[in-house]
Amino acid sequence: MKEHGGVVEWRSPRKWCVLAQNTRSQRSSIFFGTILLAILLADFELLSFTFTKLRPDLFDRREAFLSQLRSEDFERFKQQFASDTIGWDNPAGQTRSQQNCVGVEITYTYDHDRLRVHGATPARDAVVLVAGDSYTHGDEVADSESFPASLERILQVPVANFGVGGYGPEQALLKLEGLIDRFPRARVVVLAIMSDDVRRMVNSYRPVYYGETGITFGLKPYVLDGEFHGLIGDEPFRDFPSMQAAANTAFDTDFWRRAGARFPYSAAAVEALLLPSFYLPVINNLGRLIGRPDYEAIYYLPSVRRSLRAVYDRFAGMAQSRNIRAVIAFVPGDGSDQTNGLLAIGAATEPQRVHVTFINVGRDFDRSQFSRGPGCHPSPLGYRMIGADVARAVDPLLTATAARP
After folding, report:
1. pTM reported for the whole predicted model
2. Beta strands in 128-187 (DSSP E)
3. Which helix (H) or strand (E) holds 31?
4. Which residues of the chain have pLDDT under 70?
5. How many Å separate Cα 32 from the centre of its chain?
């Protein structure tokens, strides 16, 4: 019997038996459901563990990388290349030699402002200033064969080469800001951005983004979601422990960070799949199968487009404050990409288009002659192609400013 509001309800023994059976059935279902869930989770954990072992390249690799850093190498980097503002720079007042991708010895000559020299005219007399990465610097060709040197011959005015290997657009811009007032004759300034440079723009420590880099101490400024940031850490080039601490932080916080391969491995696998370091390369590889250019996917991210606009704004402001004409030239990495530059230009606002001349370089390129082969920088002819296209944008601006006192 059971009482409800003073009314007694009679339940027969049979009903009590059915109720008990239902209760036992529910408990049994919960028990077996729990067991099944535990088995599924264990299977997923095992699969995730196997995934981390089969594809360690998709997970955090700091331990192997940071263990290779040596204090004596850091001291050499600090003395010759380190910069608290831009991360690294060319050596000052030196001539260096290095073999290019086909085994030819190349000489690189730098002045005391760390600019690559390509002629008899002092860089300080330059009318056109060109900043950028290794494509501007002229990696793998002689001093006189870089694209700024070619631009000088075409325009018949002195051109200064601010290019530095491995730079993102934010580093190239910061180098310009630090030196531009030493060039009183400058009338046009060019920021050259290669296809891969936008991926570098969001990166705070070069090895997090590109593990095979030779720039092992490559802490750098970066632009994230439209905001400029300096080097990670408190004076990271002060000493070797400071450098190590900053590098370790970068592996945790960088845009290109990877998940740690540790227990629970299922959580690590899910985290890895959700990070740009995983899904952007996957999208790029799929795009390559249907003929899309490398690096395209990152240009669609809203945060990256905001960061591009921040670079455009800062570059335009620098040029306007000095009454200099500004050009941003997007250079294809392999000589054929005509999409990424247009996507990057499409991120610009209307006011930015008023103050900056944008150019998508490469409309007449002969891809077969652009470089010496896979893994190589442009050939001398490839650099001349870049110079000729940039000259089309710069020449009218020089004409327009010719009468300026």
Report:
1. 0.89
2. 128-131, 159-161
3. helix 13-54
4. 1-25, 28, 31-32, 403-405
5. 50
